[in-house]
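Contributing new records

If you add data, match the layout below exactly. Sequence lines come first and carry their own label; structure lines follow with theirs. Keep one chain per record. Anything else will be rejected by the validation script.
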Amino acid sequence: MKRTGLRSAALLTAGGLLAGLLVATAGGAVNAAPPPAPAPIVGAEQDLGHAINSRVLSQYQAQGVDQQGRPQAYWVTAGNSEVTAMFQVTDIRSGKVVFGQRLPSGTGSWAVTFARPQGAVYFGMTNGAVYTWSPGDTSVTSLGVPYPDEQIWRMAAAPDGVVYGGTYPSGKLFSYDPATKRFTDHGQIVPGETYGQALAIDDRYVYFGTKPNAKLARFDRATGEVRPITLPAQYADEEAVYDLTLAGGYLFIRLDHSSDLLVYRLSDGVVVNIVPAISGRMVSETDATGRYVYFRMVADGIVRYDLQTHTYTPVGWKPNALPGSWEWVDLADPAWPGPTLSMTYYYGRVYLWNPQTRLTRYIGEQDLEGAPNPIQAMGTGPDGSVYIGGFLSPPGMARFDPADDSMTLLSGAGQVEGFGTRGDHLLYGRYPDGNLLSYDTTRPWAYGSNPAPRAVLGDEQQRAQAFVDLGETVAVGSIPRAGRLGGALSFWTPSTGAVQTYRDIVPQQSVVSLVEHDGLLYGGTSVNGGYGIEPTATEAELFVFDPQTRQVVERAVPAPGGSAVNALVVDPAGTIWGLSDGTLFTFDPTTRTVTRSERLFPNETTMYGHERGLVLAADGFFYASVSDSLWRIDPATWNAVELAAGRVAFLTKGGDGNLYYGRVSRLYRWNFALPAVCSRVVSGSYAGPLEVTTGTTCLRDATVSGQVSVGEGAALVVRDSTVEGPVVAQRAAGVTVRDSSVVGPLSATGTTGDFRLVDSSVAGPVTVVDGRGPSVLAGNVIEGPLRCTGNDPAPQDDGQPNEVTGPVQGECAKL
């Protein structure tokens, strides 16, 4: 099974060392003597639940009709790495959800379209899968993964029913013909552009908009000829042709970041009008007269645009939402005569407006099924609470108060990229516009006033990830927008909102970590810029910056070949500690040299490394979240001990002195006051049988030859291990088998606590009966029968189906 723990680290029992660690020094010498035994583990992990419990987010939407002409809205509500996305359908007349299915794979979609000729919905996923569904179908149909190395980024249907799509990262155009059931790859449409961002299609042409450099092209469906369409010169620096709509002989082009709407006349290729800064996103089709289309302005709400005069007029309808799709629908209701304008919003909402009666209606998302929000950032505020930001977070961010273990949702926060503190204020950066916000933790949260109106990073900066309070100003490290290299170090004055930006202080690299010591800033970089562009730098750097002179005074590479330098910490002696991929390093501010650099953890390369964390606790140990695990590091010996494994990300020390970290969407605490979980740890080869009669025995990187038996009141935790024989548990306090393999039968009878079999393989029958705690069987391969009876509650699969080759009986029949 997949290895998630440290192969070379020391593993220990409550009493001492089980396996030594040969540590290579920075100079390459190897100390062959065994290191001293690490101190016993103190504390244990606590699962605090989902930080942001549920969100409904459909990044893209579409509308269509069923066989009876009833209007419908189509959603692909986002999942996370533990739960797949879900396709759902709302009947617009009744407001009821009439279909829903968790998808076999994929966590999100930016590509949904309805093809009227065949009356079918098509949608593509960011993992490259393509699906279709027709009203009346009992399940979604998979069309496979046509381009395995591509994300499906947009889809649109032609008038004849052929479906086209754009991809990332190759910026391809492809088509799918429902008649032949074949995909065709039309190649990269605009050289060098990585996103096929926007599509609009008529009988003859596909209009194709790109990102990250806002290019537009026309593809001839018959000949395959591609003709560039030149945008006005003032838009040379735009990031994306984000949305395209064909209506009334015009192509409506919405650009990002300006959000200007260009009205392009198809007959002669002239931009006849520009509407500055519409609020996005889409433009409607023409109304019954063929003269008007509708879109949204920030101040005016929905406006009616006249295709003859090229002026617009507010209609008095101001839904608090960005249009994700438009459709003229028939509500079959005398109170709603003629066509009614229907607008969807990516939070799963539908807004209706009738141009004759001016009636409006709202259909909320309460009946749609969401999924817990993946954690995007984590930090501790000046109040000692732990703040958790979510990915593309419609609900907001979470605040966990260690004083009473309460979780509070702070609405409106958006996607948080990084946290900082200044006095009583929590500082954070919001994506996608490079917003900087300050929240006074002594006053109630009220988005718009507390946090106060935002400041904005300049010079194409989009993700503010690192903050350091310098007194009057705050230093901010950031990443540029898509398709750009060169992050920045900025100085923000919260009292005035002023921001001074110094870009590219380390050429072509982003600034992703910061710490202050003795009046100087120490920063870490990532070689990566925004999404959609390859890095040109090859090694991340640590830099020293003087805020007084605004100059870089030193640069160093702390880990050769590292892609990002994160999690900088100053110890009491003034030494700078940090992480770079799987390497721990120290830097001496006096000599301005890297004094030690060692690969202690499995190498881990991510885009920005922002999920890594390093803190110095009151016990004198460093604690790190890196390589999917939580580690304790002895600063004297550099021995690293794995405390918790499996998808561990982010790390902060709460006001109570405990450690807080995440796994996908759940918040965890390493509570130093609790007794250690593992009273016995087994690693390496073990000649069985192995009997567990008291306490908790943990198998980590172990291979046990023979039967493993767990007696009444005892517990077993198996991670990254192999058991070559049966596993038998009778009235155990708990059984967990994760990322492991069992060569033989596995049975658990009368388990009083948790039973978890996750991401593992069992070569034999699995039997789970009469359990009285939560049972989870998820993502396993079971080569034999599976039987579950008498369990309360019934076993769940957490949205990860199992592959079972034998018969399945009882409560596990649907797993």
